[in-house]
Amino acid sequence: MAHPIRLSINIGINPFQLPKEIKKAEIFNCDSIHVDVTDGHFVPNLSIGPDFIAALRSMTNLPIEVHLLIQQPDRFARDFVEAGADLLIVHMESHHDIKKTINLIHGMGCRCGLALNPLTIFEKSIKYLSQLQALLILVTNFPPKSHAFQPDKLSKIKKAREFREKNNLNFQILVEGGLSAQTIPSTVIAGANTLILDSSFFKEDLSVQSLSEILKDIDEASAGG
């Protein structure tokens, strides 16, 4: 089954920047908006809550991916779904019963994804993949801005793609961290379907021509994979 390459913009958490970030997503024809939510425990950063997602939901019709980098996602899943998340991504490494959390999210009519930290091996996610709509593979430590792309994580992406094809599954393979015009082609060849790009990637001086060249690289990489 063909999986077209999608672009997702990872926006910041400043509410005053939301209109600008949404406009940027629309100008560059992003397929979705990605938001990282942190609790100060699972990762050191402390960020936003469901109210931010609700505000974002009121300002755009684009699908919203909410990536919960929190210790107990099952406690807060309902709040984020009710706030407007279209895809809720929880971590393999968090403190929760993963199967119950997946069922909880699906029970609210929301799509569910599972995220893997860079050091978590792909094989740990296998027993959940038939129930998921997305597998998010982090190729840098969090926060992505402060860490370099780790090429050795491409093998994890490839394993996910091969497992999906072998078992006729349909989950999307999302990749976040260290993505640039230089690393996108190898990431797509490995099997990524959704590239989660930092908002700064879509900088104001990014011309239509340079974006076209990047998208061309994506198409060529996809065909080569």
UniProtKB/TrEMBL annotation:
Gene Ontology molecular function terms on file: metal ion binding; racemase and epimerase activity, acting on carbohydrates and derivatives
Signal sequence residues: none
Keyword Metal-binding listed: yes
Short name of any one Pfam family annotated for the protein: Ribul_P_3_epim
Any GO BP annotation: carbohydrate metabolic process
Keywords, alphabetical: Isomerase, Metal-binding
UniProt-recorded name of the protein: Pentose-5-phosphate 3-epimerase
Originating species: Methylacidiphilum caldifontis
